[in-house]
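Researcher: Go.
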Amino acid sequence: MNTDFRYKLTKRGKAVCPECGRKTFVLYIDSATGEPLHSTVGKCDRSDNCGHHYSPKQYFQDNHIPFDTVRNSTPYRKPNPKPQPVPSYIDADIFKKSLQGYENNTLVQYLYGIVGDEATRQTVERYYIGTAKNGGTIFWQIDGCGKIRTGKAIQYAEDGHRRKDVMPPVSWVHTILKLPDFSLMQCFFGEHLLRDATKMVAIVESEKTAIIASVYLPQFIWLACGGSEGLNIDKCRCLKGRDVVLYPDCGMFDKWNNKAEVLRTICKSVSVSNLIETAASEAERKAGFDLSDYLARFSPSEFSEPQAHEKQPQEQPPSDTQPEQDKKYPAYVSDAGIVYIPTPPDGCTTYTVYSSVEAYNKRSELPRFVPFQSVDIAGMKQVFINLNTLTI
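Model: Structure:
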């Protein structure tokens, strides 16, 4: 009796496991062609930690294809992949009507209080934030082609947090409008901003966090995936070839670190920040601390101070006056390579802290701010910077 099976686990390398995100997934190949049966059909060799196994038999059953284990010589035609669903879109007129009524939009009014009128206006325009009839905020999901996938409506209290007395906590525009046969295929909130290919991309969970972070740290393009489960491979295909940094909410670092392994198959680079994980107190952890909670501790001007010094003067200064961008300001580097920059440079009250010189030069992480009195710079290496790049 011939015991050869047509579909066997390959011995030619491993793929990324769709369950645990590790490169430990062994694909089933068709012995007749030598090709993988499907990118999802295989077995994770982390049997103790994951053990994910999707067999050819299950694949054929799920796709209603007759399955057998005949000899390799039996003719076989590989099944055609299922057609990709086509997303539905929201009418542009509906979208445009929501871009008003900000005096009744509780979240927008909250933004006025923490970042100021002009920054709020620019942020509202940049992200096309809408207003619902009940004063809630509509976060429109606009894809890279400028098409409106849907809108997420959330009501906020005056302190900027979600209202817990409103049910459901999240409403969808296509559901509110009762659009028939609507095919929802979500994209990132802020995805339309990816047309700027010069900036690094930063991803957070909530839409509110993305818009607040965009004011404090405009050197990034800030996207929101809509929740810890919203960071998936299909949604991230628009990030192909981009440098990406993830800012998970408190308690989600390990989960997003695993997701980063999968995203590295698409993106140019992916890093995961542990800022929120390390900055949160025990009480803040229980309260669901996130990046917007951290940033709200500071004034946006504390983050934008370096950028102000980087601007070129519009008029040539007198010859005996040193240009602002060439002025040297002291900074300190610890034995561990941590950079402490007095802020503001004159009459400092805090130190802006970066984990390394490279992190400062690339602005690849959020700085920390610590009180001036809490740092002992004795014994540290003193350097001088022009608030643009730091070379030691």
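Model: The CA atoms of residues 250 and 289 lie 6 Å apart.
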